[in-house]
Amino acid sequence: MSGIDVSRLARHLDDAQRSATAVPQLSADPAVDRAGDFGVATAYDIQAAAYQLRLDRGERGSGVKLGFTSRAKMAQMGISEIIVGRLTDQMRIADGGVIDLDSLIHPRIEPEIAYLLAEDIGGDDQRPLAPSAIAAIAPALEIIDSRYRDFSFSLADVVADNASSARYVVGPWHHPDQDLGNLAVRLTVGGRLAEAGSTAAILGHPQRALHELVRLGRELGIPLRAGDVVLAGAATSAVPFTGEVVECEVAGLGRATVRGVRHG
Ligand code: OOG
Ligand code: MG
């Protein structure tokens, strides 16, 4: 058994998030190293404990996100395993809304596809994902903000840090009958093209990300509920999020838009 103090590390990362202060990687902490095996299983325990702190403060779970489902993201961050993080209502920003950049450390932004779940999934139910489980699809944006210095981490570090989740924006919902298999994705910053790709970059088809999520959710005991938003993972690299208007446009689905503002 690992002697790692899960609740202490959860509070530590939660404090870093709330005070927008970067901290050293847990994997580089000699105390963590001495305490035992800081592996992915322990990291998910830390993530769950930190998520519980948010719920205890009155935030409500609003869904989950996948990380590293595209080669672009794997290559950018040097990690090649699919990970899951939790979303809450406090992280959600209205489409066209504004994000206070002073509340974040070194935010980056990336284009996403969002699914809206129509049914509870998982638990003892071993059936594969049915098409009826998806209520709607939408273009989305994710703002990630690693709590670690220099936005640099190991696999266990980023899992413990809730997969760098910070904020997300969902564009207009569409009926899920459109095939998401190979749609052009464009990320523009201040009207200029910053990244371009295809939904096919997400595990060949974003739907595969959902199947991976069902598998991982069962394995990790993360419930998926009707009404949850699922972010399938960015199709392109993330870019720094500064005080400009950023748009994610997905062919046939329209766009999600957000603006960053700094007060300090
Ligand atoms: C981790 C989160 C990865 C994605 O879409 O692949 C992610 C990170 O890049 O810091 O959100
Ligand atoms: Mg993402």
Question: Which characteristics define this entry?
Answer:
30% strand, 8-stranded mixed beta sheet, binds 2-oxoadipic acid, binds magnesium ion, single chain, alpha+beta, 5-stranded mixed beta sheet, 264 residues, 6 helices
Indicate the structural class.
alpha+beta
Order of helices and strands: HHHEHEEEEEHEEEHEEEE
Q: Quick check: average pLDDT?
A: 95
* Number of extended strands: 13
Alpha-carbon distance between the termini? Answer: 45 Å
Structure overview:
This protein is of the alpha+beta class. 25% of the residues lie in helices and 30% in strands. It contains six helices and 13 strands. Strands 1, 2, 3, 5, 6, 7, 10 and 11 form an eight-stranded mixed beta sheet that branches. The radius of gyration is 17 Å and the shape is globular. The chain starts with 5 loop residues before the first helix and ends with a strand. The mean pLDDT is 95. The structure holds 2-oxoadipic acid and magnesium ion. 2-oxoadipic acid binds next to strand 1, helix 4 and strand 6. The site of 2-oxoadipic acid (OOG) has 14 residues, from strand 1, helix 4 and strand 6.
Please outline the helices and strands:
Elements: H1 6-19, H2 30-35, H3 40-56, E1 61-67, H4 71-77, E2 83-88, E3 92-93, E4 97-100, E5 108-117, E6 134-144, H5 155-160, E7 165-170, E8 184-189, E9 192-198, H6 206-220, E10 229-231, E11 239-240, E12 245-250, E13 254-261
Parallel strand pairs: 1-10, 3-7, 4-13
Antiparallel strand pairs: 1-2, 5-6, 5-10, 5-11, 6-7, 8-9, 8-12, 12-13
Bound molecules: 2-oxoadipic acid (OOG) and magnesium ion.
2-oxoadipic acid is lined by residues 65, 67-68, 73, 77, 110, 142, 144, 146, 158, 163-164, 233-234.
